[in-house]
# Entry
Amino acid sequence: MSVTYYVALPFVHTEEGPAPGQAEEMPNERSAIRQAEAMAHKTENAGALAFKRNGTPNLGQFGDATILKSFGEIPANLDEL
# Structure
């Protein structure tokens, strides 16, 4: 059975630029966007983004993430994360 995961992901300040922080799974798209915006306003974070990803967990199969919205400073090349 395919499931959609909604996630808010902060990016913290590092000497090399923004790096991923602790992701939070959210119940829906709107919540993920709101949480990402709140994360981006915290002083310890450079920015944040909200994304969704479909998959079949029991088979270990997941599609590519779809970015819903980004806030603040995030890495230019998210494919390398």
About this structure: The chain has one domain: 3-72. The first strand starts at residue 3 and ends at 12. The two ends are 27 Å apart (CA to CA).
